[in-house]
Amino acid sequence: MKLKVLQEWKFETLCDLYSTVNVTQAVIFCNTRRKVDYLAAQMSKEKYTVSCMHGEMEQNERDVIMREFRSGSSRVLITTDLLARGIDVQQVSLVINYDLPSNRENYIHRIGRSGRFGRKGVAINFITETDMRMMKDIESFYNTQIEEMPMDIANLL
């Protein structure tokens, strides 16, 4: 699903979504390590419990974060494309592309993190005006039409 949003309203939109939807586990993708750290700090400041992970962290620190996420003690993981490929977490029901990936291959790997092992899953893409060309490219390449996010999103999860 896509949700058109102004760049300056992304964080507020995420908080609204977070408080609306009951999420088993979610992965929020950002394009940069700096954005991951910023978003995790902002979410924590607003009293949301989140974990974050990116390539600048030590491997043992990333292992601990993944162990906590897999066990369910951490429910929301904010990350870069580091987590987009090859990592299976059964309980992930929601993927949010806070930043649309810069290439279509990463897009399919990111959204593939939700709804695994026959479970229900949803991917939501925050789309700014500057993302429109990439979104059209993704839709064209995969020969699909990504639907606008419905108002009753809570019923989809």
Radius of gyration: 15 Å
What is the second-level CATH architecture? 3-Layer(aba) Sandwich
Unreliable runs: none
Q: Output mean pLDDT.
A: 86
Tell me the major beta sheet: 6 strands, parallel
List the keywords:
157 residues, alpha/beta, Rossmann fold, six-stranded parallel sheet, 6 strands, globular
Descriptive account of the structure:
The structure is a single chain. With 157 residues, the protein is of the alpha/beta class. Helix content is 35%, strand content 17%. The chain has five helices and six strands. It has a six-stranded parallel beta sheet with strand order 1-6-5-2-4-3, sandwiched between helices. Strand 5, helix 4 and strand 6 form a beta-alpha-beta unit. It is globular. The model has no long low-confidence stretch (mean pLDDT 86). It holds the Pfam family Helicase_C.
Short description:
With 157 residues, this protein is α/β, with parallel strands linked by helices. Helix content is 35%, strand content 17%. The longest helix is centred in the first third of the chain and has 13 residues, at 33-45.
Give the arrangement of secondary structure elements.
Elements: E1 2-4, H1 10-20, E2 25-29, H2 33-45, E3 51-53, H3 59-71, E4 76-79, E5 92-97, H4 104-111, E6 122-127, H5 132-141
Parallel strand pairs: 1-6, 2-4, 2-5, 3-4, 5-6
